[in-house]
Request: fold
Amino acid sequence: MLQQLPEKTVERLSQYRRILLNYRFVEHAYIYSHNLARIVKTNAANVRRDLMLIGVSGDFHKGYDINELLGKINEALDYSHVTRIAFIGMGELGRSVAAHFGQNNTSMQIAATFVFGKPPANLLDGIPCFNISELQQMIRQMNIELCVVAVPENFARELTTILVHAGVSGILNFSPVQLQLPAWVHVEQFDIITKLEKTAYFMKRKHRGK
Amino acid sequence: MLQQLPEKTVERLSQYRRILLNYRFVEHAYIYSHNLARIVKTNAANVRRDLMLIGVSGDFHKGYDINELLGKINEALDYSHVTRIAFIGMGELGRSVAAHFGQNNTSMQIAATFVFGKPPANLLDGIPCFNISELQQMIRQMNIELCVVAVPENFARELTTILVHAGVSGILNFSPVQLQLPAWVHVEQFDIITKLEKTAYFMKRKHRGK
Reply:
């Protein structure tokens, strides 16, 4: 068991992995740290440090062995354990993510989705969809560990408390609300309002200079 | 016109603004940099530098005047210009964001949403919903500047090219695809796959130590 990795390293490992999965079909068996760095927009020193942390060192002339690297990243990010996920209020974005995992990933399984109204017959192909009133029961019954929560602000606190009681220990929260949950629950905050305002700011400045 | 602000400053200004809007109803007329710092999880020196960049300095004893601060942030982030936005494939998450802007913000207006299937009668209250086939025409007709794109990977490149031709200059992209668009288009990448993998990683580690 490796030690806990820094947040940024975990993010970059996830990105390296996706790049490598595409890269190995079209290019060579090796990749240089500066190639990875360019694609994820970091520097080569960061890449080398990240990879050293998971116990991989490259060949000075050839770079990193892609298959070895993929194996080590899978090990570091614990890809052998399949995390069961539910989406609560995600609509088409859920479909997009489900399609991505279906093609690229076996370590995440979208087990269920929940909506506020009447569940549509086939929101996501082959993934059951329930009304939000069944949340507590179905989360428990289906052993769901991680939930993506994209509900209006006034529901987010109550809803996430229900999730934690039902056994969820990881939450990716899109609602612009700070959640107060037990310390053993990992909450990742995804602040879409801030991202929208930032996009608008830089868009306006670039557009003026056009 | 102030100079262009750093990315992190823009993100934090957006967050300060939301905090101040809530804060002024329940607390005093002034706020200290260390209070803002604690809520947005940064340090007080960063807060003071951010606010200096937009031309606000606090009183050593009382802190920052909340109304003055709000005025300056609104000016810096150009809140007088209303950005017209469309959501493409966002479902309930779109509803959540629309509700937030409805209550807190006048600088962003969600003008339309687009879905792949038959448009539901009232996906977002009072916001028209169209089928994706009407994208080019409606984006142009409604003067939409910024789009949130949450569509499957295989559609994202083609769809964003259509958007740019129709006059869009800002894109918040949820699809795990690197877009190649003209330099005057501002693309903000929101990597949900990486965030999910990161959440799973830290969740598993915390849960074991429980």
About this structure: Chain B touches chain A through 71 residues (CB under 8 Å). The domain at 83-194 of chain B is CATH 3.40.50.720 (Rossmann fold). Strands of chain B lie at 30-31, 64-65, 83-88, 108-115, 129-131, 146-149, 170-173, 186-189. Chain B has a mean pLDDT of 81.
